[in-house]
Records
---
Amino acid sequence: MRDGERRPGEPGAAGSTDLADHLWKFRIQYREGRDPEKILRAALKLGVELFGGVEGCVATIHPGAVEARIIHDASVDGWWDRMLFAGFLRGEKVSVPHEMMLARIRRHGRMWGALALRSPNANFHWDARQAFSTIGNLANELIDQADLQRIREVRARVDRKVMEQSHPKHLSYELLHGIRSLTAYDHSAALLIHDADLGVLEVVAEQIAWRKAKGENVGRKFPLKKTLHEVLAQPVVRGFDRNGDVWTNWTGGDPTDLADLLDYDQSPKPGVSAPPEGAILCASLITRSGLLGVLKIASMHPGSFCAYEVDLISQFLPQAAVALQNARRAETLERRMIDAERKHAMADLARGVSHDVNNALGAVLPLVQQLLDEVEHGAFDPQEAVVDLRQVERSIQVCRRIFGGMLNFARGSARNPSDVALAHAVDSALLIFREGFERRGVILEVDVAPTLPSLFAVQADVEQLLLNLLSNARDAIGPGDRLTIRAEASAGWLELLVADTGCGISAEDLAKLQEPFFTTKPNGHGLGLAICRSITAQLRGQFDIRSAPGAGTRVRMRFPAGAGEDR
């Protein structure tokens, strides 16, 4: 061997000084890294460069797995002893070949993976193995920093949702999404809210990781026994692992029937082959008012969670509980405002359609009186009577449509979301207003196809949105004006347009319409558009109103198709 050549298994010619220099450059380059796998690939590349002419891989092991999984392979033939890696990571006594070096990678408080190098002609000695372990230790340090930064980012994202006063459902799913990015649970997560009046836990948000979908258990309620309520009243995180058909609590001596309660997917729907839950984390959400709810995180394999996840979730509990409580309070106030507006709208609708009803009934009374007089005086003409009775029938049908629409609006107070056909909601609203528009000579254009994608929403809310907008249009248009209602679907969105060619709104008043309680109507209360914006926001939609004096008003709304489908 010539001077200056490197033997297989020896670090670069400068020895420890050369290694320190490479490690320093590696730290500088990746100290802001956010991708742990990228850091590991770079660490492996550094090992290849330092030990020359070798091949390597990055292997990980999941709790419950028999052998390791290769997530990055820099070898010629792609063959690695996965059983050897698995035993090495489980702390078993394994015989590492002389031509191979392994460095353990710890993450999330447990043995997570390994860096592996090999060279067929090498005989790696103690100093080389120590040097390679040093590379692994630095990768550990950089990955810990990346994970810590990710925790900060998730907390900032939740804080931002709180500042935006997000709807409780949106905030709930943001929380579940953030927890998944931190814990990498592979089964599911759910948020259950405690209903103190009914004594139940209700699933309000759920994500299924193993099939990348929203959960199907939203809305399910589970009775909460007094003994379990007392257990959950403590703001702690509990961990359970499945041992056969029995749950064991590895965080304390609390009863395992809490895990039995939360293991509610033991009998999945027909045709759905759901993997069983092997590990559960249960976190109580506590406020000054008591138990708010429970955060549940599940993984497929026992041992998937440890003290790291317990500590991590514990950091989020106070913040999550306060944020959800505030959001639910805001939702309650908003619901009361919408209910109050609904009652006011009924009175407003009654005043608005009274002319239509009077006109319809006003045409009936003379015809009936004439028919009665002709019968009494023997002047009854069957052919003329048919014409008169058809006019009576038309007038009564008008009244029936108007009253039927008002009754539907008054009764449609159920808060259960469902698939809402936009065309049906438009027809329901026009039952009340169509006669008045036609009587006043308004040109009505409706283009809402029944084949459009549905909205997952509360039917009454969508109808109230339309009724408020049509009521505003009714007060702004007259004979010869045009009212257009149009809807279309595009790129996963539903767009609804309500536009008129009426008197329009001044720029000064239009700016004030953003504020609740501002109105230009003598008998108005200024909540109609505020309610429209609120309902649109609940559906994660966009609301835009534009107007100019003499040019009319245009309201455009966009909703994600299937909006609200966070199940």
Note: Confidence is low (pLDDT under 50) at residues 1-6, 563-567.
---
Amino acid sequence: MSDRPSDDNIDKSGQGNNGQSRSSKGPSSQLSTRLWRQERRSGRWWLDDRSWDWFWVSTLTGLGILMFVWGLGGVPLRDWDEGIVAQVARNIWRGWQAGDDTWLHPVLNGEPYFNKPPLVHWGIAALYQMFGVNEWTSRLPGALCGAVSVPLLYGIGRQVFRVRSPAVLSALVYVTWFPLVRHGRLAMLDMALTLFWMAAWFCVLRARRDWRWSLPLGLALGALSMTKGIVALLLLVLVVAFLAWDTPRLLRLPYFWLGIVLGWVPAIAWYGLQFERYGMAFVSQNLVTQSFQRVWDSVNRRGGPPWYYLLELVKYSWPWLMMVPAAGAIAWKNRSWAWAKLVLVWAGGYGLVISVMGTKLPWYVLPLYPALALLVGNYCRVFWQPTSVLGLDLRSPPKNNQFFPRWWAVILGLLTVGSFFGTIYFIGFATDWDWALTIALGCLALTFGVMAREVWERSPRFLAVGLWGLYISFLCFFNSPQWLWELGEQYDVVPVAALIQKSGGTGKKIYTSYPTLRPSLNFYCDCQVVVASQEQLKAEWKHLKEPLLLLDRDLARTYQNQGGRWLGIRQNLVLVGKSEQIWPDAVNESPGIAL
């Protein structure tokens, strides 16, 4: 049903002890070359296997770019990661202009930035240099990583599956997996982490046949180290576990380990430079507090039960989640094959680690989705009988196919009802009509409804309907500002930041009574807004010559009797200072202000 085992059988099919394939010199290769030349002379050369691979790589790349980049800059940056990443990248960009070494030793609010290595921040800073500082340039590096990961997953599938169809289906499922695509569009580190994770697995699969791929494997591990630190060590452990199960001879090859070490050298050098400048402070903050401590402790009180990520999958991963249990059972049944070993080690190992970690965040699950997509893609292949369409080995199911359980139709029916009522609500009852969201929900309702009907009739057409319908629905959804719904949980930072800049607060330290720190506000106003207690606010007001306080209305009134002046009101927050300058909008928006 799938590919051949990749250890002993590879040696029997033309693999030398040094890990390099000799198949290029065999008669089968000569026959393939002869057939290719005949097809080229007859005008049918574009139908060969390599041409179809290039076709699908190009097609999947285009689909990935459109999905991840569409509507990217239409909404402000969100807290936390987006605001912090954008600030650090802007400081690096300014460091390039000033000619200092901020790019090598990043800073945030004037202090060394020990949270994460700066690989992604370098990419964002480079786009700032070319296209300016805005939301689009902040998110584009992560989005491009997501777009490239789509054909890369196809490449992984081509390495482990005997035929092309599960590789294509896996990539199409991957690009329509909602939480992956949504988080992959943000100015965060996790989509780049997922890309480098997938690149490392691709190199591992190639290294089984040619140990020289251990060098790019080391580069991928180094890129992981320069993105999120110790995650590279976790991947190395999983790689060793996979090779010990699948290709143990490779672990005994010194050249394999030498290539990994050489590829890791640039990342090791950066860590050495940080230690040289900051000493144990860097080790304590970067390696301990921001890395290892997240394993056993809940950093910033972001913890959860062991089934936290299972709930995340249940909330957002339909309809593909309904296939995962049966797909996992097939993988376990076929665990002697390389594809099954890969997804079991990848999904099982990584899923177990993040489940037992003390710190839990929704985007930590992103590197799990490629493995789940491979599971689902291979499971979908069992629906089809051989034909030849677009270079695929498609299948049409026999009647009463056991792979079409009727409870799938029930789930899809519930999703149809939910999407339909969401469409009705936004058409007839929502105060602010969002046409893009309405169309997206309508497309989802139609997609899930047709899928439910096809599944009930045991027709494999539900798969094509689902892939196409989900892709169109998500494109419509990402044209709506609601795709980043977390922005509605707190006040809009953009008008508040504009008020601060208008009042001369750029570059200053501003104190606020708002209880939650907003890194995105710091980015937009280009200053540091510090959450302060009542006592600290009073102390800063008393000792600073030109203080700026961002307060709620009730607290702002108490400072009027102490010489305070309201400089403006935005989002029910008042900017208070000692300046005599009063902005016209302050008079218009806050009647009764003492002038």
Note: Strands lie at 107-108, 111-112, 509-512, 528-531, 548-552, 565-570, 573-577.
---
Amino acid sequence: MDRNRYIDNMDIEIAIDKYINEIDFTKNTEKISSIEAQGRITSKPVFAKKSSPHYNSAAMDGIIVNSEKTKGASEMNPKILKEGEDFLYINTGNPILEGYDSVIMIEDVIELGDGRVQINQSTHPWQYVRNIGEDIVATEMILPTNHKIRALDLGAIISGGVEEVEVYKKPKVGIIPTGSEIVEDITIEESGKITDTNSFMLAGSVIDCGGIPKRYNPIPDEYDKLKSGIDSASKENDLLLIIAGSSAGSKDYTSRIIDELGEKIIHGIAVKPGKPTILGKVNGKPVIGIPGYPVSAYIAFDSFAKPILLRFSGEKERVEYVDAILSKRVYSSLKNKELIRMNIGKVDTKLIATPISGGAGSTTSLVRADGIGEVPRNLEGMESGEIIRVKLLKNIEEIEEKLVSIGSHDLIIDIISDKISLSSAHVGSMGGIISMRKKEAHIAPIHLLDENSGIYNISYVKRYIPNENTVIIKGVQRIQGFIVPKGNPKNIQNFEDLLRDDVVFINRQRGSGTRVLLDYKLKEKNIDAESIKGYDLEYNTHMDIAQGVKSGNADVGLGVYSAAKALGLDFIEVAYEDYDFLIYEKSLEDKRVKKFINIIKSEEFKKQLEQMGGYRLLNTGEIIKVE
């Protein structure tokens, strides 16, 4: 009788690379209902179709009031309010009715009876109110490409009005047990009969890797039946696993059948157990001959089938704890263990954890989080620079590959983060420079206008990071301007209009480049900032500004054109500004930074900016040394 002979004794790493290079990993996609999407991998980014919440709602139990009617209230000068005239009772989540703009917590309300209450403190507009779009803003990216949809993601995509998501199809994996001695009866004790266990183990492993297993009935050691079964099963599946029959016995037919039906690429791996593994293709599909011994079967699957399935489905999963350095102070209660959502990245040899802003109702903060930081009880907080213990929501290898970006916000960061693994925190341009000075970021997006020279960014870097080898990567020029409601009902055209009594403005946070531009323009025109109604009302991103205007919380805000366009608002141009990226010169050799530069110089990036509008590319990707 003919016996097989191994023709290879290949190193396992070489064998894996060689085999994977022979396989066509074209991924098939499908659209599925969002409510059935848990565990699936996105094949394209998921963007919100509506804002959440979609109405202004109370963030606390208490009373709703018009803040104008509470002005002057204090301990020394309490105010009496009458139900139905000055206030209404409200529960958390209830809509804010027209004529009211703030909530007073029930704990701060003194009941006087007869429908009257006393308050000892004034309120400000939108106090304890969840504004429209506080969690999710229509058109913003909720999930990136190649993201495994978790249970916590479902709430975000459903809240964003996304009915269907496009995902990769789960790879179908056929599993054929072979051997005349193999039976499915788990109670069998007959001599010479073996209960099939390997196929169940492999089926479970396929599920763990994001695939769909299909177990076939055991095929006896009969050449024609086995050949027919392999031919048929290879056509029905994306990957075929044939258990046993790969060794050198006289009835080990797998090697010869693969040769006849397709191509045997490797037979024999320099690893024990698992040496008899066969790697081949039939009908253009990968086919693996798995050794029959259970440990060998596991080794063969883990070494060869698992990488193939992960490549098809994008499956990645591992959770663990790490210790990381806090990039800024966090607050907590003495009574409770505090769980804080974190972005994490590795800068040099340090893991850096940056807290993500967002209240308890913010599902997107969990979507963006790399981990959950834990502040123990009996601590009132932790200071910047302290070590925090973090439970990872993503595997450490993925985190360590991230480019850590801390600085100014712009919608182009969403575009870039879909093309490179990016840990992004929006803390404003000055916050980005400070993070770079502390060496807690790889890159900082900044747009800071020098009031004296009219040049962006350079002087600030010299001032705050002196005597260091830093460079500026030229980014984009973007239009800043007034974001106003559709039709511009109050005919706001210039900075002087911000002084009008009927105009409410919303501002960016201190340290942001937009705030610097605003203050520069106000100083240039001798306008007193304190005379602008809403100047002290601060929002953290351009999309926050646009949503604030769209929801009617304000009449105007200063922001970028792309944010106005995304929400269908009007825009009055003020100025183009330079939105650039600060890094240390030595980081130019970092592969992540090189990829980042290639992305912003690419034609695809240029086309996406043209579609968004409000940007122009001028020397994008050019490196300017700060001297």
Note: The mean pLDDT is 87.
